[in-house]
Specification:
Length: 696
């Protein structure tokens, strides 16, 4: 074989890239992606590619010294400049930001954004002669129009009242013909342009936690009653508007919907996956942070959305869609790096987009938080944090693309219009070991299906233990602690043969009489498959003192080499004296399928085709932090051309950012041959890959 200079350079480049990313590869038939081009799941609602523009006064958060010059500059940067979107000195948008918005494929924009809405009086943000809020309602809608995006307006829950909200609807949507639907001041006559016909409004933003100033919290009943006043007044001004209700916890939702019933057009959810908040992240390895965070959309959001939709229908009597008007990785910190601007967070947002797109989740819009500059922006202007205010806009301004930006650019440029079905067979990682960080997992894993009845039979195997007297009587195990010398009791057991990589539920009833000590008694699973070296265990809640019969349970997943489990009546003492009696009955070990599988596949796949059906697209996340994965890809009902294209978003590590080097995390494009169907492709570790394949 003759090696040309071009081939040698390509080979050297491949070697250098492998060294740079420290890539290892996983091969084999265990990784198979089957794409069914003929099975349509549904059309993609492009409003999942939404975003947030901001124009509030940051002093709304109550943390700014109002007369401090530095604070005032920051406040002006948002309410006058829209965090870089608007140049108030010339009363026009910033071309570079508008162009980047189009590159990101923004379809719907939320304004004025977040908790800054709490003290936002929209009437201060319209009209001539303003000194503040120069990026106001009209300016925002002008920029949305330039981008070609719809608008969703957040109405303040804490500032103004329902009449002010109705005036806003009139200002935006009523014809300037003297009709004045809300009475009083003719707001349509105040408007300089034709009606904007804004369709979507939401009443409040995360209102449950108060306004960050004098109101510390809002109760569900308070919110529901005030919301209904807004709803009625705004619908009276324009019956065609769609009004959203703030959702929160399951209890909040039930209470609010019990009052509101069917008077809503969509439910509002915010989601920010993270294992912990704030400085606690500094004590975790990045690989663990993002392994957990990439699991949360699968374990939490994919589970929560259907439950919330079910409750909405139950309370309203009809199908009500969801609007995810804020989402991002929940990383509020800067050390060791600002994880919110990292490659890992870009992968989280790619995973959330996949979930938002599923037609069964009925998501009418999703708005990334947020686009330009400020704390969360996916793009940042050159220089210092507020240098865009000093820039001479007669000259172009340079913006840096952060990793999150590239996710939306890839979806905008290299994904289709109609979702198609896939089947993915791949390795996985177990999130059970991350239970301290995925607390909802502990609760949800307890709901599931029993597929094999009690595997425990026969009597308890009781070994003598000094100072402890145990016996079985009338089907119950009785243990009497008479001040034993040793404090660790595990001498009454049962055994059961089990299957590897399988869930089991241990359950039973425990009663106690006068048990001393802080530690009580429980039922425990012992998995000694690794022959005594750090055996794996799972235990029920402990009972101490005096207590009547209580039902307790725990769920356990066996390892790949587990063949049997030991069930123990357990008491872990700290110090003496240990006295009292414990009773155990109806103890069962059952094979179990949990409602939520805690194994997270390494490869997450989203697939689509174009309307003509002659091009297929894949968007694949490799959640393996250390290894590349070579997968076999088979295209059903589609004959691929010989060449295809790939765009890979990646960097040197999952916590890599572009803060110091804009080329650190980037998209690399390549073409590859499709010599047969199925064909193989290698997905780099901690990466997002877009693949486009044309048909013959």
């Amino acid at each position: 074989m003759r090696l040309t200079a071009k081939k040698i350079n390509s080979a050297l480049l491949a070697i250098l890239l492998l060294g740079f990313f420290n890539i290892k590869f996983v091969y084999g038939s265990d990784n198979v992606i089957t794409v069914y081009a003929g099975r349509e799941i549904g059309e993609i609602n492009k409003n999942v590619y939404g975003n947030n523009f901001i124009g509030y006064d940051p002093a709304a958060y109550g943390t700014f010294k109002r007369h401090n010059k530095k604070s005032w500059e920051y406040r002006r940067s948002t309410m006058n400049y829209g965090a870089g979107v608007w140049y108030p000195k010339q009363n026009k948008s910033v071309k570079e930001v508008i162009d980047l918005s189009k590159q990101a494929g923004i379809t719907i924009l939320r304004f004025p954004g977040g908790c800054g809405t709490h003290s936002y009086n929209w009437k201060d943000a319209v009209g001539e002669g303003r000194k503040r809020f120069l990026y106001g309602i009209d300016e925002f809608l002008e920029t949305a129009g330039e981008i070609g995006a719809e608008a969703v307006i957040t109405v303040s829950y804490f500032t103004g009242n329902e009449e002010d909200a109705a005036d806003l609807v009139e200002y935006l949507n009523a014809p300037d013909d003297g009709s004045n639907p809300n009475g009083g001041r003719d707001w349509a006559a105040e408007r300089a342009e034709n009606p904007y016909k804004v369709k979507y409004f939401e009443i409040g933003n995360e209102v449950w936690h108060g306004n960050h100033r004098d109101i510390k919290k809002v109760l569900p009943m308070e919110y529901a009653k005030r919301y209904l006043k807004y709803y009625e007044a705004m619908k009276a001004a324009d019956p065609s508007v769609k009004i959203g209700l703030v959702l929160h916890t399951a209890d909040w939702n039930r209470r609010v919907l019990g009052i509101v019933k069917g008077k809503l057009d969509f439910g509002i959810i915010h989601t920010y996956p993270t294992p912990v908040w704030g400085k606690k992240l500094e004590r975790m390895r990045p690989e663990r942070i993002f392994s957990v965070s990439l699991a949360i959309p699968v374990l939490k959001d994919r589970f929560d959305f259907p439950q919330t939709l079910k409750l909405l229908k139950e309370k309203s009597g009809r199908d009500i869609p969801l609007a995810i008007t804020e989402y991002n990785g929940g990383f509020v910190q800067d050390k060791p790096v600002p994880y919110r601007h990292s490659l890992g967070t870009a992968l989280i947002n790619a995973e959330l987009l996949r979930i938002f797109m599923k037609p069964g989740h009925n998501v009418i819009m999703a708005n990334y938080w947020q686009f330009s500059n400020s704390y969360w922006g996916m793009i940042k202007s050159e220089g210092g944090r507020l240098d865009y205010m000093k820039h001479d806009y007669r000259n172009p301004i340079t913006y840096k693309k952060r990793p999150n930006f590239y996710v939306y650019e890839l979806y905008n440029k290299h994904f289709g219009d109609i979702l198609i079905d896939t089947d993915v067979k791949t390795g996985s990682y177990e999130t059970g070991k991350y239970k301290p960080y995925i607390r909802m997992l502990v609760k949800r894993i307890k709901s599931g299906t029993i597929i094999k009845k009690n595997l425990l039979s026969g009597k308890w195997n009781i070994r003598e233990f000094p100072g402890v007297y145990a016996k079985e009587k009338e089907g119950a195990l009785e243990i009497d602690f008479k001040n034993p010398e040793e404090f660790n009791y595990y001498h009454s057991i049962k055994r059961a043969r089990v299957e590897p990589d399988t869930y089991y539920r241990l359950s039973g009833y425990i009663r106690a009489e006068g048990l001393t000590g802080k530690k009580g008694v429980c039922l425990e699973i012992l998995d000694n498959s690794n022959r005594g070296r750090n055996p794996s265990t799972a235990a029920t809640k402990e009972i101490t003192g005096t207590a009547e019969w209580q039902y307790l349970e725990t769920v356990y997943k066996t390892s790949s080499n587990t063949r049997y489990l030991i069930i123990r009546a357990r008491r872990i003492g700290v110090k003496g004296p240990l006295k009292g009696r414990a009773f155990f009955k109806d103890v069962k070990l059952e094979k179990y399928i949990p409602a939520l599988d805690t194994r997270i596949p390494y490869l997450s796949v989203n697939a689509a085709r174009n309307r003509d059906g002659d091009r297929v697209y894949l968007m694949v996340i490799n959640k393996n932090m250390d290894q590349g994965i070579t997968a076999s890809i088979e295209l059903k009902d589609f004959v691929p051309a010989e060449k295809a294209s790939a765009w890979v978003l990646n960097g040197p590590a999952v916590d890599a950012t572009n803060e110091d080097n804009p080329e650190n995390v980037k998209v690399v494009h390549s073409e590859f041959k499709v010599n047969q169907n199925p064909f193989e492709f290698t997905f780099e570790p901690h990466s997002l890959t877009a693949i486009g394949i044309s048909g013959e």
